[in-house]
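Re-running Thioredoxin domain containing 16 to confirm reproducibility after the cluster update. Everything else is unchanged from the original entry.
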Amino acid sequence: AHRIMCIVYLIAFLFSLTSEQCSSKLMEDSSQSFMERMHTGKTSFIYFGNHVNPTIKLFMEQLEMSADALQDYGISVVKVNCSKDAIANYCTGEKLMTKAYLFRGSEVLRSFDIDTVFDVNAIVSHVLFSVLFNEVRYVHTPAELLRVESAAKQNSDIVVGHIPVLGLPEHRALMEAAFVYGTKYQFVQTSGTLVLKHMGVVDLSSSQARLWFLHCKGVSRRSDPCPSTPMRKPLNTINIHTFLQLMEAPLTESVLDPSEVDVVHLHLGVPVLYLFSQPQTQHLDRATAQTLGLQLRGEVGLVLIHRDSPNVKTSLKYNAAYRLPQEDVKYFTLNSAEGVVKLFKEELLQEQKLENEEEDEEHWSDLDILDDEVSESVYRDRDLMLDLESVIELTSDTFQITVTQDDITVVLFYFKWDAVCMAFIQSYIEVADALEGMNGVKLAAVNCGEWTDICSDQNVTSFPTVLIYRPMAAAQLYRGMLGTKSLHRFILLSLGSSPYILSSSAEVMSFMEGDLYSKHMYLTPVRVLGLFSSTHDMGVTSFEEAARLLRGESILGLFAHKEMIHVWTSEVEGLSVNLPALLVSRGPGVPYEVYSLPSSSPTDLVSLIKQVELDRFPELTVENLPWYLELGKPLLLLFIGKEDSTESTKALAEIKQPLSSGQLDSFLPCWIHLGRTPVGRSILEKYLGFVPPLPVLVMSQLKTGEEVFLFPPERPLMAKNILQWIHDVENGQEQPAGLIPDGKWGPPVPFFDFLAIMDQEAPTYAVQRAPKMKTGGREDHRENKHVTPNQKQTPHPSSNPQAPRQHSEL
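Result of re-run:
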């Protein structure tokens, strides 16, 4: 269900696209502000550089991201431009540009090579580990861990994390958990195999990060070992939080029926076991429940229900029940404690694990290309050698010569260690193979990890980036999808002129629906013609610049001759044009569309041209959806299963009737083919709560609210019925069949609000963690960041410094 929700939100919430800009929290200090910072006593992570070496750019991007994350912990991230402010001891010497420093006040807690703090996870994990150096114990041997256990017995429980490689996301997750739960538990970190063997790990060659909870607080005898519970899920922030929540509540008691009991385990997605207690055997039942709670700890929540309450109405023939995540309560008769453990360990938990694995597989197959999937696929194919024979690999010596030789040179800028780049390279090679032998076209690539000077000179800041070079012209950025088909189409369209300069009525007809049209008909059926009185019109220059910007995306023509235009338009039945104008052709036999062409800038013309190119009755896809949503019209959306079925063909034709007469101009009539766009089924189910027989017509995105209206399935899907239904909806005579979910995302439950948890668990935590002589950083941070569970979270930082802010990891 969660997977489907994510996919539905990905597409459905594009219907209310918004753009919120996150302001950077990275500060820049001058000499004066640096000295003032040294006297505040607060913690700061500072990088000193002169901002001239392009190899540092990637580190600066990660540094900026870490500023947002470390702000949650009262730690400022600062850069100092040594070319402007030469600060003694830090802006000189060979260590400049290669070191970053962690200060508390004027005291340097630690310095880091930037190779160590290579990305945001490494920065956050190393900085927090340094700040928590006295609280998080680092052990190398089992003997050192046993000494920590001995000191913790009867005092506190221990959280042990094995982090094979420091600076990775697992290390960051452990440090963030230590910051939040550090006053409740003793945190221990290790990276050696000796401790792994001591904890019972058999495969010591595994590089997997691990976590254990040592129950030392309840151990009274020094000679007794601390029982341990391993965390069996991947080590990340949410899983650690869930695991620690389970450790705190192994047994809950209630006086309600299982279906009425609300426990933390249900919110955490953990199975729950319910045991019924009789008044006469209450002591024995509680002991049994406690035993089972310890055996199933970390995997199953346990609730003891007292039957002496009148609220418990479960039949006496059952003495136990269980509830799996997202399922109803199931009752059974408990014969022995061993039987319950076997039921969960060998059957229910294994089934749930298999279901989760299958769901993960479906998740990857349904989603479009995302970072995690790309990383996984690149890792899976890491041994496959890429054939780069059809792609020229450029260097500093060959770049300028190569990009000026041919009519078109396409250049891919990439990093070998970036998963998205490596996944796209395969598509890029396929395009190069398809175009091999074509005159005037050459595909090349630049490895920005080796040739940083080229990428810097070309102002390439994101990867992968594709630029198209032509002699004596500025480079053009490819803005399409990172796939073989899209890039191949773009390059082929780029081979033609933009715009085509037409000088006669015959050339216009050839461009609109003749030989010139047929040349690129398989790429796009739409042609846009700019009509002007003469080449000296003020709008011609803007149109030519807009055509240049749209080269590879659209096919545009320019006809600037007033007398010829009047002669030609008089020969076309029903065509009347007031110059300047845009004329749109959607293919032979389709009436031309005429749009007035106001005087505007090239960028405004680009938007206008992209808008007039849109189909009046489009098939919605993931690729074209944003363009149609920009129209801001309510959607009249037809879902069909098979385009060639009689019902689907008839439904499409019935909607086209009122569309052609202008009766649907206030709507955006469109359709989704569930075979080509499978996620449409999930959207339809989310809209209505079920999937009715197809085809089905719905209306959504009304200005009056978030209602979704369903065309009555008992009425024939005919033009007159559709118009009557629309009239009834607008007059409030139809009841909505569903609601579009609220697009604002927040934490699923308040338990994931780590900053609120920190204050709830220990209100003076921030003060406790800082030494008395170095207070200030966390106190100020906590006052501004306190969030109660009832406060509404916002997904982006607020402009108000006092507003609550969501944790960046979540």
